[in-house]
């Protein structure tokens, strides 16, 4: 069997695709896997690093909403669809699995032309244009949230890295806190605005950190590699405030933490829910509002808090986050609620859907 993955551009598209690739190889080491990508996407680094073939096609940016520019898309897509067709024919693809992004729509349309079955995975609560179109032709559609609007979709969660999907936070906590030089017994707040950081989160936490420390809270804060590290004066006998540029071991960070303050990207929500780490979600205030939709289901389930970016202040942190961190019973209840909502097996469930799509085609 040969599987072509179409999900380039951002880590939110690439990481679930690679998690599926890993799951496919665990089940059958002989399966062929090729990832479609463009020369400007993160996949040019991430896919080869994980040992998978990358095949490049021209990039055709898609508008997220219906605009006059949409009329020009079919003409601009012709060349990239042809390039995708050639890759499907060369690899003798049995199925195309798409995750959205620039390369997904050419992959879907090329597969439709060649009669190759399509499986769509949508990570966000509000699907993008590529997956809206691809879902019309798909043999199967998988989604990350029970509130998805895609028709005939199966709720499975998001395929996650094994280091996250199999994480036992309680068992790894001593090792994780030792790795960061944190106290083993103090409540710990993890703060991160994603791989590049978030200025709003950084400013608020830098302001409120001393008051949290005086309340017995230690803080691990990933500020983003291009952002200036805030000055941190840790007084003897006080809990630590530890700002770092970047966290390359999120499994250790999750294990060290009791709660997280973060944005609400689909991957972040899925990872925190899977490992049972309660969070205060601060949706990105730009875009189409999808981050709020991503976080709402787990928050409704009791596994997190939700605050608008404009309402994130030092006072809100002290009034909403601090009471959770200092209440072990509430922390436990929120952690349990997050874990009950989270899905750790989305990679294996998606593998099953891929095999079903291939089997259905072969049975015709």
Automatic annotation (TrEMBL):
It is found in: Cell membrane. Cell wall formation. Catalyzes the transfer of a GlcNAc subunit on undecaprenyl-pyrophosphoryl-MurNAc-pentapeptide (lipid intermediate I) to form undecaprenyl-pyrophosphoryl-MurNAc-(pentapeptide)GlcNAc (lipid intermediate II). Its EC number is 2.4.1.227. It catalyses: di-trans,octa-cis-undecaprenyl diphospho-N-acetyl-alpha-D-muramoyl-L-alanyl-D-glutamyl-meso-2,6-diaminopimeloyl-D-alanyl-D-alanine + UDP-N-acetyl-alpha-D-glucosamine = di-trans,octa-cis-undecaprenyl diphospho-[N-acetyl-alpha-D-glucosaminyl-(1->4)]-N-acetyl-alpha-D-muramoyl-L-alanyl-D-glutamyl-meso-2,6-diaminopimeloyl-D-alanyl-D-alanine + UDP + H(+). The keyword Transferase applies. It is an enzyme of class 2 (transferase). PANTHER family: GLYCOSYLTRANSFERASE, UDP-N-ACETYLGLUCOSAMINE--N-ACETYLMURAMYL-(PENTAPEPTIDE) PYROPHOSPHORYL-UNDECAPRENOL N-ACETYLGLUCOSAMINE TRANSFERASE 1. Pfam families: Glyco_tran_28_C, Glyco_transf_28. Residues 188-348 form the Glycosyl transferase family 28 C-terminal domain. UDP-N-acetyl-alpha-D-glucosamine binds at residues 10-12, 124, 161, 195, 291. The gene is murG. This is UDP-N-acetylglucosamine--N-acetylmuramyl-(pentapeptide) pyrophosphoryl-undecaprenol N-acetylglucosamine transferase. GO terms for molecular function: UDP-N-acetyl-D-glucosamine:N-acetylmuramoyl-L-alanyl-D-glutamyl-meso-2,6-diaminopimelyl-D-alanyl-D-alanine-diphosphoundecaprenol 4-beta-N-acetylglucosaminlytransferase activity; undecaprenyldiphospho-muramoylpentapeptide beta-N-acetylglucosaminyltransferase activity. InterPro entries: GlcNAc_MurG (IPR006009), Glyco_trans_28_C (IPR007235), GlycoTrans_28_N (IPR004276). Keywords: Cell cycle, Cell division, Cell membrane, Cell shape, Cell wall biogenesis/degradation, Glycosyltransferase, Membrane, Peptidoglycan synthesis, Transferase. It is a peripheral membrane protein. Gene3D superfamilies: Glycogen Phosphorylase B. Pathway: Cell wall biogenesis; peptidoglycan biosynthesis.
């Amino acid at each position: 069997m040969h599987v072509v993955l179409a999900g380039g551009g951002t880590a939110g598209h690439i990481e679930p695709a690679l998690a599926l690739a890993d799951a496919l190889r665990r089940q059958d080491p002989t399966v062929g896997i090729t990832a479609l990508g463009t020369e400007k996407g993160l996949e040019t680094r991430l896919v080869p690093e994980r040992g998978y073939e990358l095949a490049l096609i021209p990039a055709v940016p898609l508008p997220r909403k219906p605009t006059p520019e949409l009329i020009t898309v079919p003409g601009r897509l012709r060349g990239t669809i042809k390039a995708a067709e050639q890759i499907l024919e060369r690899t003798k693809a049995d199925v195309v699995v798409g995750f959205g992004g620039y390369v997904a729509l050419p992959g879907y349309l090329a597969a439709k032309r060649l009669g190759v079955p399509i499986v769509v995975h949508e990570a966000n609560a509000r699907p993008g244009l590529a997956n809206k179109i691809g879902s019309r032709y798909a043999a199967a559609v998988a989604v990350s949230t029970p509130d998805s609007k895609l028709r005939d979709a199966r709720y499975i969660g998001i395929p996650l890295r094994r280091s996250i999907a199999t994480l036992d936070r309680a068992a790894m906590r001593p090792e994780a806190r030792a790795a960061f030089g944190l106290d083993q017994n103090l409540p710990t707040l993890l703060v991160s605005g994603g791989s590049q950081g978030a200025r709003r989160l950084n400013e608020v936490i830098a302001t409120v950190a001393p008051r949290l420390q005086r309340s017995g809270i230690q803080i691990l804060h990933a500020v983003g590699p291009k952002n200036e590290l805030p000055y941190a004066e840790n007084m003897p006998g006080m809990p630590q405030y530890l700002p770092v540029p970047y966290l390359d071991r999120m499994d250790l960070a999750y294990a060290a933490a009791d709660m997280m303050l973060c944005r609400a990207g689909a991957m972040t929500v899925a990872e925190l829910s899977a490992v049972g780490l309660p969070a205060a979600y601060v949706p990105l205030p730009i875009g189409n509002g999808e981050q709020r939709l991503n976080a709402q289901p787990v928050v409704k389930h009791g596994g997190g808090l939700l605050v608008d970016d404009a309402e994130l202040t030092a006072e809100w942190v002290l009034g909403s986050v601090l009471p959770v961190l200092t209440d072990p019973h509430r922390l436990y209840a929120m952690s349990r609620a997050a874990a009950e909502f989270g899905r750790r097996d989305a990679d294996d469930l998606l593998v099953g859907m891929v095999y079903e799509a291939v089997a259905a085609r072969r049975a015709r």
